[in-house]
Amino acid sequence: MEDPSEIIRIPTPSKFDAFPYNVPYGIQSDLMAHLFAAIESRSLAIIESPTGTGKTLSLLTSSLTWLRENKTRSKHARLADLRQKITAESDESEPQWVIEQSLSRQQKALEAEENDFERRLDEARRKEEIIRRKQKGKVVKRARVERDDLAVNEDQYLPDDDRNVPEEDDNIFLENLTPEVREQLKQLKSHSTERSRTQPEDPIYFASRTHTQLSQTITELLKITGGSDTRSVSLGSRKNTCINEDLKERGGDLDEACRELNSREKGSRCPHLPSHDEESKLFDFRDHILASPKDIEDLVEIGKELKTCPYYGSLTLPYNLLLQKSAREALGISLEDHIVIIDEAHNLIDTVLSINSHVLSSRTLQLALAQLKAYHTKFKNRLSPRNALSIKRVVMFIAALDGFCKSMASDENESGSTPRKSDGAIAAGNPESSDTTMMTVGELVSRLNTRIDGLNLLEMVQYLRDSKLARKISGYCDDMLAQASKEPGKARDHKSGAAPPLHAVEAFLLVLTSPNHQGRVFVTVEGPFRGQDADRTRNAVTLKYQLLNPEDAFRDVIEEARSVILAGGTMSPMFDIQTQLFPNLPEDRIAMFTCGHVIPSSSLQTLVITHGPRKKELKFKFDNRGNNELTEELGLILANLVVLVPHGLVIFFPSHSFLQSALKIWEERGVMTRIRSKKNVFLEPADGSSVDGVLRDYSATIATKDRESQSRSPRGAVLMAVVSGRLSEGLNFSDDLARGVVVIGLPYANLGSRELKERMNFVRRKGSTGGKDAGMELYENICMKAVNQSIGRAIRHKNDWASLILIDQRYSTSRIQNKLPNWIRSEIIVAKTWGDGIRELGAFYRRKREEGALETQ
Question: Per the count of CB atoms within 10 A, which of 188, 447, 641, 834 is most buried?
Answer without folding.
Answer: 641
